[in-house]
Amino acid sequence: MSKLAALDDLLELYYQLNYHQNPDIFQRLQDVQAWQKMRMQSTHLRQFSEKHNILMSEYFLNRLYGGSDFDALAGQIARLMKYAHKAEKLIPENAIKTGTSGVSLAILAVQLDEQVAMQLLKDYHPHEKLTDEMMRLTYLKLDQGQQRLQQLDLLDQLGLSLDKYMRSFIVYTAFKMCKGAASKYNFQVMYEFMQDGFLAMKPLKSAEKFVKDFTAVERQIIHQVHAADPNPFQYQ
Question: Which InterPro entries does the record cross-reference, listed alphabetically (predicted)?
Answer without folding.
Answer: DUF8198 (IPR058511), FFLEE_fam (IPR058063)
